[in-house]
Amino acid sequence: MANNMASCLVVLTALLGLTCAIKIDRTPLLMPGVAPQKADTYMCYTMKLNSNMEQNLVGFLPNTSHVVHHMLLYGCPEPGSQERVWNCGGDMSGTSGDDNAQETSPVCQSDEKILYAWAHNAPSLELPEDVGFQVGGETNIQYLVLQVHYNDQVKDYHNKDGKKDHSGITLLHTMEELPRQAGVIVMLANGRIPAQRQEVVDIACPIVENTEIHPFAYRVHTHKLGKAVSGYVIQDGKWNLLGKRDPQTPQMFYPVADDKLVLSAGDIIAARCTMDNPHEHAVKMGSTMMDEMCNFYLMYWTEKPYAPVSQDSCVSLGPPYVYWDTFGLKDIPADSSKP
Asked: In the chain, which end has fewer C-beta atoms inside a 10 angstrom radius, N or C?
């Protein structure tokens, strides 16, 4: 990892809930003093990992300012740019006003993996005992990329006092070999929310890989129109709740409703966002704060030697094109639109 790390020995601490002594290193991954000049700017900053040594990420401590809408941490084989900091929001993003961040490029060159997400004043996240995101060494994750989406408060950086943003994440990681590897599946939708109407945004996909998936946490994300987000796994026709939440509460990773659930090939994962649009115009799904989003993140572990599944996303066309009944799903829970 980076050189500027502090080490600590954690023994039976509440922080990570470990049952044995394990050496934990802390590495800050923070924006290196940037001054975004426009709302909805997306900026990325990368960290090169040690290709000779595998590490396990076991916790994430957010450190954000009031100008941050949300943050995502990605794992990449190669970053989307060779610049230290770059504009990674495409046409959705404004210019950053920083000489090191003028290039517009993707987050990763290919095969991006979401490892962590933060929004709405969410607290820190510590993974369960014996679970970690395996990075560096011979893994496909050779770089970490921090993506920060800045909100409409960036005007605070327009003055001449030289104020800069250093938001980001402190990574907790260990060189210890752990028996379980963490992964994330993201369910998300396109589509639009009609004017002056409540609408449901439905997502569903079958699990196709023959690996036992053990969910342990979930996270929901919408913008201002979201009223409830729920996630399920459908096994032999039975709907089992993964989690449901009001997306206007802190958008942290919460424990799943049943940590004994095991997902496997043939199961169907499904998510629903309930939206209420009071405006006189339709609101489309997109990347800016004026758009909407419908995301359900499912964090899980697999037992070694099985790696996390390559199926890391599930995408729906969204309304008005598809709904759960369009997928042929039956016996939909009556309370799926309630937080």
From this structure: C
Residues of the chain with pLDDT under 50: 2-19, 91-101
CA dist., res. 144 & res. 258, Å (int): 31
Under 8 Å CB-to-CB from 220, ≥6 apart: which residues? 226, 229, 231, 243, 244, 245, 247, 251, 273, 295, 296, 297
CA 195 from centre of chain: 29
The structure tokens listed for 58 are 């076991």
Question: Looking at the annotation, which residues are catalytic?
Answer: 69-70, 147, 149, 221, 223, 293
Res 154: pLDDT: 65
pTM for the whole thing?
Answer: 0.86
What span, in angstroms and rounded, lies between the C-alpha atoms of 70 and 161?
Answer: 25
3-state secondary structure of 155: helix
The number of helix segments (H) and strand segments (E) in the chain equals 0, 22
| Strand arrangement, sheet containing 42-48 | 85-87, 42-48, 143-150, 68-76, 113-119
Structure confidence at residue 67 (pLDDT)? 79
Q: b/e string for 152-189 if b means 16 or more Cβ within 10 A?
A: eebeebeeeeeeebebbbbbbbbbeebebbbbbbbbbb
Q: Nearest to residue 271, comparing CAs of 236, 224, 229?
A: 229
| Chain centre distance of CA 275 | 20
- State the amino acid at position 258 in one-letter form: D
| Cβ atoms of residues 275 and 292 within 8 Å | yes
- Provide the pLDDT for residue 197: 96
- C-beta of residue 176 within 8 angstroms of C-beta of residue 134: no
